[in-house]
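Per-record layout

source: Roseateles paludis
name: Type II secretion system protein I
length: 121
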Amino acid sequence: MNPGRQRGFTLIEVLVALVIVAIALGAGIKAAGALTDNAERLARVTAGQWCAENRLTALRLSKLPPELGEQPFGCEQLGQQFAGVLRASPTPNPLFRRVDAEVRDAQGLPVITVSTIIGQF
């Protein structure tokens, strides 16, 4: 060792280390934001699916064949308002009808569509 030389980090080394830490923190914040967005989307889709399934179950329990065409409906799940449309269409077998429940959020953006076949009793 050189007795006249001091030990430690140079300014360049410290700046490079700070740049590396800043990049890592930026990537971490971006990843955390993406996880938050995905969790919110999952909650919205799950609540929308509950709305659609509830409406289709009510239709099955009514024991009446669904009328052809569109029927609007509203729903609230997890404190969120949803608007939906039931679309009943014929199938090749006249004893069955296809029913699509399309659910949209309060802004009118599509959330989920659930489809099923309902037989006439």
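summary: The chain is about 40% helix and 30% strand. Helices lie at 11-61.
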